[in-house]
């Protein structure tokens, strides 16, 4: 890691906030930022309590901010009551926001439709009433497997309105992944669509649900609601499956929300960890919503006239916080996009920014990298060909952004006028944690700069002691914060072990990222320190992919590592030992292809290994541990300079070096 740290710490370019920005920003200048930090430092719980009173509307006020009596199972604003959907919709009724556009939806084929806050409220109420009429109530779990659509947002908001805990499964995940999540969450309801449309192609969704049911054990589910996106031909099982239109038919446009305690779980979102099984990250209602609303104001400086566009999918946490909840809680107008950045051409994003006069644009480094390539190779679709003068702020999320991609984004998209907020956060943190504030921080390409006020981020060594500036270490958060993960659904012990491990005496939240601070106190994120890969901004556990591979009848053993990749950040490389003798080159190609598709079916297309190598064995220590460090070097094509004296079977390395 140290070579990496050295190279980024040499980044000397500095971009101060534009003058006009500072005076109008929600946090206007370094003095205000420091004053907020000092307020939090003085009274951490009191600071968050003040913000929770100012930014949320409570049905019943809370009397206590933080309950840390059962740490690390922290509770925030525990005796207060509210409803998250009420805070996103009803609070705007009777205000000028009521008739404002909430969502500008652009379909894959370019068709645009708009929904005002009043209309969105009506649609959420009708759907919630329909679910209520079917007997669904507070505390039940719903799997949402939906395309990017207004209905996807409506489904999530309707669940929140009734206190039903949603668990959105990304539309790219396989039937097997849905099956696992239905069972782990004990879901009673599934909300899906016939098909999704991306890049001009129809991709089936409902058939994946049927396939999941066919695997057995999904008896907890009482209803599957199917939204008709394309009218594609899908099987409907009488009694169990019901059309969306049927659910809302005849329902009232008013729906009394279920008032819930602040700590009532709002959602579960599965994410990859160090072991084979994805973790159901559980979030609470009030604390989560507070951070969603607050960071819209602090980080994105959202103003009534802004047009906000977050390009994430609602299947990831970014889509939860910065599509379904944050923008609505702030009464903002946002763009929701069904399709992909390169269809029908590589200028789609820039064309849409121009068409909808987007002023705040939030995307991922992987999308930027692919558009750099596309724009350079097809000059007609380069961002400079479009009118991007509506933009005033850019954002990045999901993985470290390399300084070259940052400069391209800053120059070609932001035209050197727009600050870039490089927001570091995680599924577990609920909202931004370390990020520039556009009216405060001078930017350094590749650095997420400084923690938000009230976020006690630090870098420590393995004993939990702060490291000196300029040195690398573990990124931790030393104090609880309102939008933090509450537990892993059904597995509190795994929560404690994963995030508050005994190594740090259980004191600090361990993020799982390596990081360093430079002499100015800026944070630089170096990537995961655990067995989690970041492929195109998506988290994938190496163990998860290994389990998928070994479940194939041909495979005896598998080890998966990451390799740096220009386009996807990291690429998946799998080392596989087959049960049969080592295959011929020809056969190896075919089996590698079959195994790729197998992983696609087991987890989802994003997890398919880019490179599969076969060997008679894997490099192991005499005690039988796979030497992953070595495999990482082999995957990168590096000379092996590590000590191999503990290696049981050194000859194996030569076999594994041969790519297929
Ligand atoms: C929001 C989200 C979390 C992991 C995180 C880190 C990486 C996210 C980043 C970043 C550097 C940034 N990550 N944002 N690394 N700079 N601005 O992506 O959540 O899918 O849970 O991933 O992504 O490694 O630990 P999630």
Automatic annotation (TrEMBL):
Its cofactor is Mg(2+). GO terms for molecular function: acetate-CoA ligase activity; AMP binding; ATP binding; metal ion binding. GO terms for cellular component: cytosol. One of its GO terms (biological process) is acetyl-CoA biosynthetic process from acetate. The keyword Lipid metabolism does not apply. Pfam families: ACAS_N, AMP-binding, AMP-binding_C. Keywords: Acetylation, ATP-binding, Ligase, Magnesium, Metal-binding, Nucleotide-binding. Its EC number is 6.2.1.1. Catalyzes the conversion of acetate into acetyl-CoA (AcCoA), an essential intermediate at the junction of anabolic and catabolic pathways. AcsA undergoes a two-step reaction. In the first half reaction, AcsA combines acetate with ATP to form acetyl-adenylate (AcAMP) intermediate. In the second half reaction, it can then transfer the acetyl group from AcAMP to the sulfhydryl group of CoA, forming the product AcCoA. Belongs to the ATP-dependent AMP-binding enzyme family. This is Acetyl-coenzyme A synthetase. The gene is acs.
